Amino acid sequence: MKFPLSWLKYHLETDASLAEIADAMTMAGLEIEDIDNPAEKFGEFTVCYVKDAVKHPDADKLRVCTVDTRDGEKQIVCGAPNARAGMYAVYAPLGTYIPGLDFALDKKPRKIRGVESHGMMCSAKELELGEDHDGIIDLDGEWEVGTPAVVALGQDDPVIDFEVTPNRPDWLGVRGIARDLAATGIGTLKDVPVNEIEGSFPCPVEIKLDWPEACPVFMGRIVRGVKNVESPDWLKKALTSIGLRPINALADITNLISYDRCRPLHVYDASKLTGAIHARKGAGETDRFEALDNKEYVPADSMCVIADEARALGFGGVMGGVYSGCESDTTDVFIEAAWFDPLITRATAKATGIDSDAKYRYERGVDPASCRDGIEYATRLILDICGGEASEVLVAGEVPAKPADIEFPVTEVKRLTGLDLPREEIVRILETLGFEPVGEGDMLTVGVPSWRLDCSQKADLVEEVARIHGFDNLEALSLPRLPGRREAPATPMQLRARYARRALASRGYSEAVTWSFCETSQAALFGGHGEGLTLDNPISSELDVMRPTALIHLLTAMQANADRGQAGAALFEVGPIYLSDAPDGQRLVATGVMPVQADRHWTGQREPDVFDVKADVMAALEAAGAPVGSLQTVAEAREWWHPGRSGVMRLGPKNVMAEFGEIHPRVLKALDIDGRVLAFEIVLDNIPMPKKVSGLKARTQLDKADLTPVRRDFAFLVDKSVAADAAIRAAKGADKQLITGVSVFDVYEGKGVPEGQVSLALEVTLQPREKTLTDEEIEAVAGKIVAKVTGATGGSLRS
Amino acid sequence: MTDTSNLDTLERDVLSQIEAAGNEAGLDEIRVSALGKKGSVSLMMRELGKMSPEERQVMGPALNGLKTRLNDAITARKDTLENAALDAALASETVDISLPVRPQPQGSLHPITQVMEELAVIFADMGFAVAEGPDVEDDFHNFTALNFPEGHPARDTQDTFFMQPDADGNRKVLRTHTSPVQIRTMLEQKPPIRIIAPGRVYRCDWDQTHTPMFHQVEGLVIDKDTHMGHLKGVLLDFIAAFFETDKVEAQFRPHHFPFTEPSAEMDVKYERVGQAVKVGQGDKWMEILGCGMVHPNVIRNCGLDPDEYQGFAFGMGVDRLAMLKYGAPDLRDFFNSDKRWLAHYGFSPLLQANLATGLS
């Protein structure tokens, strides 16, 4: 919302400077977006007096002028035909930026055909203050040299642009702004009465309110014998200053009142009306009409139309129609001052896509009590500018009740803000804002003004009082410590994420943060997006569903890095994936990617493989508190993984905590990713919660046997399809007390091993506890190990 | 035979041989020839038995002394030869230690993570826990319960992403702010409540200063006596702690948010230093967050009585805090996963923001 300072001063008596007014607005909650101050913008340009102007010795069209300026007497060479002695002109000193020419004068005097020129005299166009560029500005009257040019030109009115928050439609009229500023103490609200104009004949047009919920009150009046002339300068200037284009007097008057009082009005050409005026529901196709935006609309029954007995004339509170609009030859007009329901107005505007000043105001809530002042003010201006004769005002329906009174204990101010204000000050603030507080002692009954539809309860009044008193006056207090011991507030999930992050970053992965949404086709490569997770209004078609995995963006980011010449980026993200739109449909994953790329080094090349990411997964799981020792690793990864080089780590048959391996080449191809890629995705939610031991953090006793452990090697021939994990588990299970470690030290296939089999070499560590093991005891355990492993794998001991 | 001059000659002779020995094998030969079973000194020792007691008294100690001295000389020479051999062996194992090591990739944590951890630490010190909620929200939690009435223009200010409607016509949204966590927390916990809720939020807007996804942190305090002066105090304390400065000049401007009443925006004085800002000095105001007393309708919507319970809420952009503190100029870069950017603006995993050792 924009307004020029002079307009504000029409309603506000004040001596405050522009800066003080801007400050007062800011601290009252009217957030300033911009101040266009010509005095500042054109500060360099001042009035000068041309004492003498003689022809340039070497140029017929140039004059050498002697000019009195604020900088003393200057010689200025001027090419304007109207330059003459005795004129008051506008002077720009050397070095000044000339907006209309978009360049700055040289800082040193320049010779023009041999004669030095010490500055410039400007045309209106060069100052962008007008179109006139036939000559330099020739000011009327006498001026003191050095007077700011914008003052002499009457263009020194600053324009303030500020943000109107949705709760304060009254700020959409300059008078509403003035009222709040008056309350801050920066000035007083002027009484600008709107006098009723007595009609000389009854209003001949009947008004029928067929849908009172949408339009509960409608005042109408005819003015006949008007001339829809061009608006007077003051009106055109007022509208131009806020960025509106003057059209004709009738249109301009309604626009002025809309911005002055936040009171939208509509003026119909009365000669186009047939019978009574109705405010009713839209009737569909038969109501089709062309609105003032020159588009056709078909009003639905959810929309409020203003219609006569022949046709729909416009959308109530949104936009009028072309048919009954006022033209230059309009002589009789019908003025509408009504009130339209905010929700219905908004719904109509949303459905039709129409945006208008009227709709912007009605959907926020126009003062229902302003119909009368609005129609009288409009009539006054029409009679003054366009002439004519006014009818009586016809009132259909009733002005909706003003907001209910609020029972307000003044102690609420202190309770909610800590401000200890005297009752009188609270009452004073409320009264200057138009509230009507009555009552004895601390308990007030506060009448709410009709324009404050946003105020319905105590807290709303507390805000008014605190806002006008000034938030700067609130005493800042640190929050007192809560009693008792302070428990570390992090949840187990938060700690998991934290530790997994650190484990992965420590292992060389850089943490990225990528979009939560992705493209449908990308999601399809990873099992598809979840139910209900398609965006209705995506920011782009490439981000139209919620991601089912964090792999997609990490993979494409890795490729983007490679494209920038930064190959080999190992990236990870700890973030959400989405399985469904339910509150519990979201999972927190730790996901990583790494290209399979050999590092070139003088010690020899090394290429990462699936066992590197398996190690990373185990490290992250361990850090996040998963029981890594109890997890099974099986080749059951889903179809976007390499079928032979991937797996899952799971607890029991169902709880899959991580998937890892190489990404399937077909998926990489679809994502335009070169080479092979190792990746993993850990679902942090799937890690079981640690058992809570209340307060006890003591460890169990250390099991530390002093006897030397015994190591025995075994080689088994097993079928290639047998998982090594099965052999390891079987060996471990042979004697859980004695066997403390099983490792695989060789996997061999080829010569000496039958086709389709591998030789799996295990080293088993036996830890004696009470006494050294005898050969017989060792042999007995070895026998059990062989039996268990061959039993579990179907293999045999290699001889 | 008590003349020991022979012994002196023998000693000189053997010692010079020991000194000349070039390797352990040669040294051993010398040992055998002098001290071995049939060595020259051993043979002379055998003669002792044939001597008179007087002779023995002279020759015995002389021979024993000789034997000891020769043994010592052999041991010393043996050490010398061993050390020389080790030196030679080690010399042959020399490498060029200026050669580069095998590269270890350096990982890092994202600045958003770092800032979120800093927030958690600073607010934990004031008794706040960290709460969370889902990104895909329903209308109730994102709007209605937060006092955005159905059809109210305030909803327009949010640039909401909607999900396609389900069979019943209900549309989920991507949460436009972290404020739904206020609702979830108040519905689940009993006051006193002190939480912050950092997380992803979404708005349908994409330009130099907006991304469709960004991060916010929400703060909520609900009890029976926390008022707006406390709100101001907490935020001033937070700004001082986060920007690590003693001077914080701030102004609270009235504003409007549907879910707070009174509502304010907080501006801080700042000065640009390169891409980062120095908060507390300078002459310009910068808006940094929105806040206010929790609206009585919101308290009611969560089943509490606003005449009994009160408190405040605030919300601010995490990414923006990171940009301001650590000087990253462009918001869009936060989500580009450029390895160089991540390395430059990222943080070591060994760093853990805390009050004992510092935030970063």
* Gyration radius of chain B, in Å: 43 Å
| First-to-last CA distance of chain A | 93 Å
> In the residues of chain A, how many domains can be counted?
6
Radius of gyration of chain A, CA atoms, in whole angstroms: 42 Å
Strand ordering within the main sheet of chain A = 30-33-34-38-37-36-35
CATH fold label of the largest domain in chain A = BirA Bifunctional Protein, domain 2
CATH topology of the largest domain in chain B: BirA Bifunctional Protein, domain 2
CATH homologous superfamily assignment of the largest domain in chain A: Bira Bifunctional Protein, Domain 2
CATH superfamily of the largest domain in chain B: Bira Bifunctional Protein, Domain 2
Q: How does the major sheet of chain B shape up?
A: 8 strands, mixed
Question: At the first level of CATH, what is the class of the largest domain in chain A?
Answer: Alpha Beta
The gross shape of chain A turns out to be elongated
Overall spatial form of chain B: rod-shaped
Distance between the termini of chain B: 91 Å
Contiguous uncertain segments of 5+ residues of chain B: none
Tell me the name of the CATH class of the largest domain in chain B.
Answer: Alpha Beta
Compressed to H and E, one letter per element, the order of chain B equals HHHHHEEHEHEEHEEEEHEHH
Care to describe what's here?
The complex is a heterodimer of chains A (799) and B (360). Helices cover 26% and strands 26% of the residues of chain A. With 799 residues, chain A is α+β, with helices and mostly antiparallel strands. Chain A folds into six domains: 2-37 and 158-189, Phenylalanyl-tRNA Synthetase, Chain B, domain 1; 40-152, OB fold (Dihydrolipoamide Acetyltransferase, E2P) (Beta Barrel), CATH 2.40.50.140; 207-397, Phenylalanyl-tRNA Synthetase, Chain B, domain 3 (3-Layer(bba) Sandwich); 406-473, Phenylalanyl-tRNA Synthetase, Chain B, domain 1, CATH 3.30.56.10; 492-686, 2-Layer Sandwich (BirA Bifunctional Protein, domain 2); 710-797, Ferrodoxin-fold anticodon-binding domain (Alpha-Beta Plaits, 2-Layer Sandwich), CATH 3.30.70.380. Chain B has two domains: 5-92; 111-345, BirA Bifunctional Protein, domain 2 (2-Layer Sandwich), CATH 3.30.930. Chain B has helices at residues 5-20, 24-35, 40-47, 53-92, 111-125, 139-142, 180-188, 228-242, 296-301, 318-326, 339-345; strands at residues 129-130, 136-137, 173-174, 193-202, 213-223, 250-257, 260-273, 276-279, 284-294, 310-317. The termini of chain B are far apart. The longest helix of chain B is centred in the first third of the chain and has 40 residues, at 53-92. The model of chain B has no long low-confidence stretch (mean pLDDT 91). The interface between A and B is large, with 102 and 92 residues.
